[in-house]
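User: I've been trying to design a sequence by hand for this structure and keep getting stuck. Would you show me what you'd pick, starting by listing the structure so we're on the same page?

Assistant: Good idea, let's start from the same input. This is the structure you sent:
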């Protein structure tokens, strides 16, 4: 056999072994509740207790509430979380500009350190992400989008580790899986909807 051909064959085999070794060990789970569907890694768990937030003098409960148990070496019960909130119904606009400006002002007033802002697409709709560090307590990603005249907020949070520095990039691959597979039916989602996933 030709030495060049043998060398190419060996390099190809090494490349296959290296690439196959880079695959994720997580399996995907399907979330389907409240008109919301998406996939998430099985390293995340569903918290059936709704999370309630107060913003802009209104209260809203989470339609989705997931958490990812933290690494054991931190020896504390800090977890990364993901929640989805329906913030407003019956909007007469499909423009995120006012919400983006509002979030900038709220973050500034709260003293949050801005990490990043960027445009996204969620279920075919324009979306906007703010990554902030609230009071050196980790990092939070707030993502806003409008579907069917309703404003939604996705919130991903990563706590500050005691022995390791964590940031939103720690969970970015998991976030991408959720965001890219995310669909929502705004006709079935109401502010009063909080159910356990099926």
């Amino acid at each position: 056999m030709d030495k060049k051909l043998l060398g190419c064959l060996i390099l190809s085999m090494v490349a296959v072994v290296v690439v196959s070794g880079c695959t994720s060990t997580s399996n995907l789970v399907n979330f389907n509740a409240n008109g919301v569907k998406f996939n998430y890694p099985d390293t995340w768990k569903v918290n059936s207790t709704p999370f309630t937030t107060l913003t802009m003098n209104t209260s809203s409960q989470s339609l989705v509430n997931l958490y990812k148990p933290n690494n054991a070496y931190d020896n504390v019960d800090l977890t990364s979380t993901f929640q989805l909130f329906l913030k407003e119904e019956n909007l007469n606009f499909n423009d995120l500009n006012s919400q983006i400006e509002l979030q900038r002002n709220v973050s500034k007033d709260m003293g949050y350190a801005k990490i990043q802002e960027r445009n996204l697409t969620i279920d075919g709709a324009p979306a906007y992400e703010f990554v902030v560090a609230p009071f050196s307590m980790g990092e939070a990603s707030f993502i806003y989008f409008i579907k069917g005249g309703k404003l939604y907020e996705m919130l991903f949070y990563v706590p500050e580790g005691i022995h390791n520095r964590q940031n939103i990039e720690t969970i970015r691959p998991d976030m991408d899986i959720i965001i890219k597979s995310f669909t929502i039916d705004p006709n079935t989602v109401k502010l009063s909807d909080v159910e356990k996933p099926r």
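That's my pick for every position. To get oriented when you compare it with your attempt: Residues 4-24, 54-58, 72-76, 193-198 have pLDDT under 50 and may be disordered. Residues 27-184 form a domain with the Protein Transport Mog1p; Chain A fold (CATH 3.40.1000.10).
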